[in-house]
């Protein structure tokens, strides 16, 4: 894991996430160098200074994008806005729930991201799915080279990620090349659902997952019999839970298992393991809609996959980083072992040989992206090679 700030896991995690979303090392250094001293004071301190430094870089890229746009260089403008959005989102994610300016920063990020996608003409369509008097927003990526209805993998967030993060890390692009469409979703407790509509997390993930399946089944370009669900981090709890109780899912997958997240919270109270964001206990109560620690911990008793996974009767993939410092590896084995009725279950532990050994492969997503995309394509009727490839074209040089 790239450790720009020695000893500050939370800030380093943010930088690694930004790099996986396309941040440039020179820009990272310019943003982070002024923060070295304050970073030594702990992950909660200095987050306002973090915001100012990263927003300044975002604003500079926005200005450069305007210059490109004035010259008709719209693709270049779009890519700069996309990177600006990554920096603004990273800064927003680091702030306390009620930090001054956080809502305005999120709105600026949204505008940058959406305008960047439009100018760069990316394969990314915003969708809105009605839910509880509001809607769940998603980013839809079409399958490439598919005639007729395509399979779909719905991808859901963890505790503190957003649909834009899922999209930028790149699984939708990997799947599209394999003939699989994607929907990156802000489910309750994350992204727009939490920030704009006050939709908080719920342990019975099938309640919203079923509504998403309802909506995606109506699309003319999606095969309703080939819809899968994949979750990252805390999505490693939501996805198995939803697949267990929603039989229309054709498969399930997790990028970072999370078999008993309630138990993990008790460990974190005892300072065991790393936390993903600053102001952690304030953040989790915001996500789950509780007004006290006692109420939060009471709700966490339900956030476990114990007694649930025997309901899963479709193929399921469990992946985990061997050196995950947030969620212990034992939980991946617990989820895998619980899938007693899955006809096709796979456990993949990412090691030093492949890379991606940290939480949800935040240190290096390259191998995990290939592995997950291939596994899904093989089971949803996608492809792992182009149809016109010839055997003589596929030789690999010797190591």
From TrEMBL:
<protein>
    <submittedName>
        <fullName>Alpha/beta hydrolase family protein</fullName>
        <ecNumber>3.4.-.-</ecNumber>
    </submittedName>
</protein>
<dbReference type="InterPro" id="IPR050261">
    <property type="entry name" value="FrsA_esterase"/>
</dbReference>
<keyword id="KW-0378">Hydrolase</keyword>
<dbReference type="Pfam" id="PF00326">
    <property type="entry name" value="Peptidase_S9"/>
</dbReference>
<dbReference type="InterPro" id="IPR029058">
    <property type="entry name" value="AB_hydrolase_fold"/>
</dbReference>
<feature type="domain" description="Peptidase S9 prolyl oligopeptidase catalytic">
    <location>
        <begin position="211"/>
        <end position="381"/>
    </location>
</feature>
<dbReference type="InterPro" id="IPR001375">
    <property type="entry name" value="Peptidase_S9_cat"/>
</dbReference>
<dbReference type="GO" id="GO:0016787">
    <property type="term" value="F:hydrolase activity"/>
</dbReference>
């Amino acid at each position: 894991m790239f450790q720009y700030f020695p000893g500050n896991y939370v800030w380093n995690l943010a930088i690694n996430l930004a790099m996986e979303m396309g941040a440039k090392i020179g820009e990272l250094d310019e943003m982070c160098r002024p923060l070295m001293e304050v970073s030594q004071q702990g992950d909660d301190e200095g987050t306002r200074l973090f915001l100012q430094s990263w927003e300044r870089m975002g604003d500079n890229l926005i200005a450069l994008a305007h210059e490109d746009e004035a010259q008709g260089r719209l693709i270049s403008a779009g890519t700069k806005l996309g990177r600006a959005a990554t920096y603004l989102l990273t800064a927003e994610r680091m702030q306390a729930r009620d930090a001054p300016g956080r809502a305005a920063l999120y709105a600026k990020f949204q505008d940058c991201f959406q305008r960047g996608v439009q100018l760069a003409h990316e394969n990314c369509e915003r969708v809105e799915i009605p839910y509880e008097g509001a809607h769940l927003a998603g980013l839809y990526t079409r399958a490439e080279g598919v005639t007729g209805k395509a399979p779909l993998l719905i991808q859901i967030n963890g505790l503190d990620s957003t649909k834009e993060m899922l999209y930028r890390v790149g699984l939708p692009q990997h799947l599209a090349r394999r003939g699989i469409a994607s929907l990156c979703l802000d489910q309750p407790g994350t992204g727009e659902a939490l920030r704009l509509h006050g939709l908080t997390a719920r342990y019975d993930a099938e309640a919203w997952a079923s509504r998403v399946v309802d909506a995606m089944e109506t699309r003319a370009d999606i095969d309703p019999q080939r819809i899968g669900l994949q979750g990252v981090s805390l999505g490693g709890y939501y996805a198995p839970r939803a697949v267990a109780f929603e039989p229309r899912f054709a498969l399930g997958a997790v990028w970072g298992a999370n078999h008993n997240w309630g138990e993990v919270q008790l460990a974190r109270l005892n300072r065991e393991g790393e936390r993903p964001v600053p102001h952690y206990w304030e953040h989790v109560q915001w996500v789950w809609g509780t007004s006290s620690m006692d109420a939060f911990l009471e709700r966490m008793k339900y956030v476990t996959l114990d007694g649930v996974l025997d309901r899963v009767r479709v193929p399921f993939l469990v992946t985990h980083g061997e050196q995950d410092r947030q969620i212990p590896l034992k939980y991946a084995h617990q989820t895998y072992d619980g899938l007693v009725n899955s006809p096709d279950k796979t456990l993949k532990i990412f090691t030093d040989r492949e890379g991606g050994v940290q939480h949800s492969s935040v240190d290096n997503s390259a191998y995990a992206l290939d592995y997950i995309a291939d596994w899904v394509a093989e089971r949803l009727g996608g492809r792992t090679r182009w149809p016109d490839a010839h055997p003589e074209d596929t030789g690999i040089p010797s190591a």
